């Protein structure tokens, strides 16, 4: 499968999972064996019935997989690495034969370091030795010591800058590289999905927990930066658990905090959280399963004659379902018609599998009964479009070329697909016409060969950033992104 197509698939994974459940798809033809690796997130720790409520079981049921769950409560990355490199282990054959492998790892690396850090700090405060095990037990106790909890909470915020945190992150990075390398050695054809990390306290609005919230948000970002960086090698795909849980309608975690004597610092997702994680994993699997579609013969429009510069792009877009012609019976595509913002949202919504979405969030200038309601609501929910500063969306407004660049870069950035390429736009004579808010996105789009400039009769290429993007141009842009070499 082409490299750039894989890149967009990763983007679409994020677009779909950010809004939750996606309609069920047929079982993947070549993905029948599933192995889950990692920690208590994969074991379903804390659930009433992990065998039915855990995300691993939910994924297996959705996809019809034969599943081997090798996850272990409390496992850190070095323990997962030891498992996947032990060729004498009875589980090695399951790993070597798996079609799909999910990995949840990294949280315990930092938790263990946190307990070490707190033990050191609390020992200094008390003047007597305190072990990391004691700290872990105290924070998980049903009847916690309020004085101890009050002393520990401010210390947690300082953990991010500690040597223990730095050492844990460095070790995790090295171990994750080793885990992926070992899996690819044992099973080069497996689809490997790495779940990124979340902040289990993000739904608690209590000033006493603010230091904990800050510390775990920083930790999640640090771990996710390492996970995303590794995905750039195309050896695995990131499942954006952080995104889907952060955008949840209700609290997807067990953690709660009423007072210093009435709290639950359990970091695990509840049953609702596991449903969201399962939906995210299923969305990635459903999108990665299809092969790169090739245009089929017989697709044609009366206003798209052979020989036009846009012919191949429009034929590709129609044959792959990326874009369609008008449904008025005219058999026309409207290649030179301006693309509207609502139409652009619809194109991406269609590629993402048309997931259901709550249209009640639509701005006042969008009619919830119009054809564009679900696509626009979805695009705003996943932040592919951000709307105008005045709170409107402008569904019928023309999509400018610089807006198109921003929308596609937003999509790519959601999951961590590489959006670092940049180029100097000064080579284009109209570079000064680029809006400040769009210059970075256009620089990325040009550097990534998504936008190549509009060629004038004298051979000069202009960006024409403020001009409406035509339907033919968007077809070419999407072909460059999805099917470009």
UniProtKB/TrEMBL annotation:
<feature type="domain" description="SLH">
    <location>
        <begin position="363"/>
        <end position="422"/>
    </location>
</feature>
<feature type="signal peptide">
    <location>
        <begin position="1"/>
        <end position="28"/>
    </location>
</feature>
<feature type="domain" description="SLH">
    <location>
        <begin position="297"/>
        <end position="362"/>
    </location>
</feature>
<dbReference type="Pfam" id="PF00395">
    <property type="entry name" value="SLH"/>
</dbReference>
<feature type="domain" description="SLH">
    <location>
        <begin position="425"/>
        <end position="485"/>
    </location>
</feature>
<protein>
    <submittedName>
        <fullName>S-layer homology domain-containing protein</fullName>
    </submittedName>
</protein>
<dbReference type="InterPro" id="IPR051465">
    <property type="entry name" value="Cell_Envelope_Struct_Comp"/>
</dbReference>
<dbReference type="Pfam" id="PF13472">
    <property type="entry name" value="Lipase_GDSL_2"/>
</dbReference>
<keyword id="KW-0732">Signal</keyword>
<dbReference type="InterPro" id="IPR036514">
    <property type="entry name" value="SGNH_hydro_sf"/>
</dbReference>
<dbReference type="InterPro" id="IPR001119">
    <property type="entry name" value="SLH_dom"/>
</dbReference>
<dbReference type="InterPro" id="IPR013830">
    <property type="entry name" value="SGNH_hydro"/>
</dbReference>
């Amino acid at each position: 499968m082409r490299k750039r197509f894989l890149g967009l698939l990763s983007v679409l994974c994020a677009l779909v999972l950010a809004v939750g459940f996606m309609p069920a798809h047929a079982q993947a033809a070549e993905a029948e064996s599933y192995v889950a690796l990692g920690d208590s997130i994969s074991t379903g720790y804390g659930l009433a019935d992990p065998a039915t409520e855990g995300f691993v079981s939910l994924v297996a049921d959705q996809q019809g997989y034969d599943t081997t769950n090798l996850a272990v409560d409390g496992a850190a990355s070095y323990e997962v690495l030891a498992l996947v490199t032990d060729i004498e282990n009875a589980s090695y054959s399951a790993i070597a034969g798996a079609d799909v492998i999910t990995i949840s790892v990294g949280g315990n690396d930092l938790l263990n370091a946190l307990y070490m850090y707190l033990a050191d700090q609390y020992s200094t405060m008390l003047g007597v030795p305190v072990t990391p095990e004691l700290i872990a037990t105290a924070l998980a106790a049903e009847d916690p010591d309020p004085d101890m909890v009050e002393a520990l909470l401010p210390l947690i915020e300082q953990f991010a800058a500690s040597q223990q945190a730095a050492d844990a992150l460095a070790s995790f990075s090295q171990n994750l590289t080793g885990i992926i390398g070992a899996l690819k050695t044992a099973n080069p054809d497996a689809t490997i999905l790495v779940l990124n990390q979340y902040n289990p306290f993000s739904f608690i609005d209590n000033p006493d927990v603010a230091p904990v919230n800050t510390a775990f948000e920083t930790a999640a970002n640090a771990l996710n930066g390492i996970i995303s960086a590794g995905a750039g090698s195309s050896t695995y795909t990131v499942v954006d658990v952080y995104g889907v849980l952060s955008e949840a309608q209700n609290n997807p975690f067990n953690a709660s905090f009423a007072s210093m004597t009435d709290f639950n610092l359990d970091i695990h997702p509840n049953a609702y959280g596991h449903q969201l994680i399962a939906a995210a994993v299923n969305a990635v699997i459903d999108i990665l399963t299809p092969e790169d579609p090739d245009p089929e013969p017989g697709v044609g429009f009366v206003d798209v004659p052979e020989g036009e510069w846009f012919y191949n792009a429009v034929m590709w877009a129609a044959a792959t379902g990326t874009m369609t012609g008008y449904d008025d019976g005219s058999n026309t595509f409207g290649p030179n018609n301006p693309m509207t913002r609502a139409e652009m949202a619809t194109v991406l919504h269609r590629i993402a599998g048309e997931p259901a979405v709550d249209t009640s969030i639509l701005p006042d200038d969008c009619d919830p009964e119009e054809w564009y309601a679900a696509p626009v609501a979805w695009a705003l929910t996943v932040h592919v479009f951000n709307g105008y500063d005045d709170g409107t969306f402008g569904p019928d407004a023309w999509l400018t070329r610089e807006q198109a660049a921003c929308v596609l870069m937003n999509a790519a950035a959601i999951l961590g697909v590489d959006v670092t390429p940049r180029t100097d736009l000064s080579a284009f004579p109209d570079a000064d016409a680029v809006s400040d808010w769009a210059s970075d996105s256009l620089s990325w789009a040009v550097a990534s060969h998504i936008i190549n400039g509009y060629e004038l009769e004298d051979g000069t290429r202009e960006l024409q950033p403020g001009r409406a993007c035509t339907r033919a141009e968007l077809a070419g842009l999407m072909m460059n992104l999805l099917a470009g070499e």
